[in-house]
Design goal:
With 463 residues, the chain is α/β, with parallel strands linked by helices. Helix content is 30%, strand content 21%. It has 13 helices and 19 strands.
Length: 463
Amino acid sequence: MDTLHSDIIVIGAGAAGLMAARELGRAGKKVTLLEARDRCGGRIYPLATGEFGYPAEGGAEFVHGEAPVTRALLREAGLSLVPVYGTRWNVERGAFSQDEAPDLGADHFHQALAELKADVTVADFLERYFAGPEHSRLRHSIVRMVEGYDAADPAMASILALRDEWMNRGPGPQVRIAGGYGALIAYLADECRKQNAVIHLNSVVSAIEATDRRALVHCVNGRSYTGDRVILTVPLPLLQDIAFPHAVREKLAAAANIGFGNVIKILLRFKTHWWTSSTERDLSDLLFLLSDETIPVWWTQCSPERPVLTGWIAGPKTAGMPHLDENALVETGIASLAGIFGLSPQALMRDLVAARAINWARDPFARGAYSYATPATREAQLALASSDVTAILLSGEALYRGRDMGTVEAALASGLETAQAVVAVDQISTPRHSPVTRQITLPTSSATKTEPSGPSVTPTGRP
């Protein structure tokens, strides 16, 4: 079979890969994009509108905080943002309240964070400063936030990275994209094709041969592609499935120092908004619901036309569920709701119209949800981002060195930054032969993950 040549081969048609491919195409590069799935988007996973009555999200759902790259792209695409309104409720031993979590912004907590010089894990930090029984509720809330929001293991997660998230942050708006993230992915894919980038779906990469000037990419389907460079945007766990030259494999070993957590997301469509009248409390304004049930976090669409509850469990607690198939996960979600509201699972099942459960750890082309920082992550990112070994570059949310690892904003910003770097290097090395290109400007990303906005807020998840 003939080997196809491009200037750039981008592996992975998620947010980072599509963004890089689009920008490189705009700069006059011949781009081939290889995607293992039968769709673009990666961990952005739009579900069929017919299932839930709207473009529901099996993966990323919210736009977090400022997200300048995301918002600029949305304006370009003519897509609007929809504010999310509602109240966060907590349930503890059957009692509903709107009380905040224990005041994690107390002086002692902030002082301990501010004075910390050397990075340690969250678990070590809590053991060092908040080990006493008087801090039990604080420890519980911190662990729940780290596990549920960052999908992180407290025994591995960097406290300094989380300090950047927690301190000196004001609350930001919680918003969704009208039409869902799928509309943004569709726009990016269409933009890639307009720039003559070729997207090959169902193209699982098995091996990459590379030197400092040329790369050869082999796919499971027997096709091969050559390029001057390869931009690899696959989730970190998939790096172990690709055969690399020895020097590249040694470099990629640094990826073990970047955390990668899992998420299970459960969407349940009912005939009615039964939860608004199932307790003595008025829950008509319910947005987020937090509990200590097996599926601990739930949220609504805050719409009379959308009687849908979305369940969320993330981090180490998902490790006990690998044996559960989709039906079993749906049953677990129903049981959790029944426990929260004091209802029978059978009654809830009778009201159920549609259900989906996505365990991202079982997705063969993700094997988890998103990355998080460990104490060794920043050094690992620098090592992985270096281009001194071969023609292979890495990009994606795990390589993003700002505060927003694990978000779509991080993926888009990383893809854009990688494209910008490639164009800049090529313009310097071959100025007489480079086409006239549009200036690529990378906005300064200071996006916040809106829930929680600071250490005084209990997690709601980072979908």
